[in-house]
Amino acid sequence: MSISRRNFLYKSTAGAVAAVSISSIVSACVSEPKQGKASIFAKGNTVLFQGDSITDAGRDKQNETPNRAWSFGNGYALLAASHLLNVLPEHELTIYNRGISGNKVFQLADRWDKDCLDLNPQVLSILIGVNDYWHKRNGNYDGTVEIYENDYRALLKRTQEALPGVKLVLCEPFYVLETSAVDETWIEPMQEYQAAAKRISDDFETIWVPFQQVFDEAVKHAPGTYWTPDGVHPSMAGAQLMAEAWLKAVGE
């Protein structure tokens, strides 16, 4: 066998293992959706991704056209939205990304009319919480987990009152150890924020995306820095992992 062919087969095999690994990680961590095989998406639905820099992912905020790559950045929201548009063309979905880097819950609330309610989404996905802790940790914010939970609940109540019937997808804020910005001192305080987010999800009966569990499983297969160099912002592999977890949680 030639060296070039052997290298090709090796690379192909390695790629297959990686693909199976990501799929198995997601399968081990994300439950089947409550609605079973019924899609949460209907024809003509508007879908909105909201959150902080993880959702923002460098999107073009001067051109926020739905269903366009430049308005989605280079993160999980782009990958998940692309998948939906690919597999559900007959649904004619309108998909937006309105994540903004650095946001905490109260900053979502400040812009909620323009960046959520006015868009009238039928499906709303939110990933928020890491900055509510991280900015407190570095001294740039004096919030608490109680403020986070109360503000988050108020935001969802406001949303449901304005948009009856909206389907909510709440994503777990996460961290990954042994990376450039995250160490063991993150564990206990972040777990409090995660527990608050899960309580909110349960009380509002939302779809839940267990990102912490997904990344905890992922680091058994590759180092934390492979999935997220700083422990918060995902790499390309981490973004794909998140997108697949999100899609499984919503049943797609």
Automatic annotation (TrEMBL):
UniProt GO MF annotations: phosphatidylcholine lysophospholipase activity
Coiled-coil ranges per UniProt: none
Domain SGNH hydrolase-type esterase: 51-241
Keyword Lyase: no
Keyword Signal belongs to the record: yes
Alphabetically ordered keywords of this record: Hydrolase, Signal
Signal peptide limits: 1-28
Alphabetized CDD domains for the sequence: SGNH_hydrolase_like_2
InterPro entries from the UniProt entry: Ester_Hydrolysis_Enzymes, SGNH_hydro, SGNH_hydro_sf, TAT_signal, TAT_signal_bac_arc
Domain of life: Bacteria
PANTHER family named among the record's database cross-references: SGNH HYDROLASE-TYPE ESTERASE DOMAIN-CONTAINING PROTEIN (PTHR30383:SF5), THIOESTERASE 1/PROTEASE 1/LYSOPHOSPHOLIPASE L1 (PTHR30383)
Protein name, UniProt field: SGNH/GDSL hydrolase family protein
Organism name: Draconibacterium halophilum
Lineage, uppermost ranks: Bacteria, Pseudomonadati, Bacteroidota, Bacteroidia, Marinilabiliales
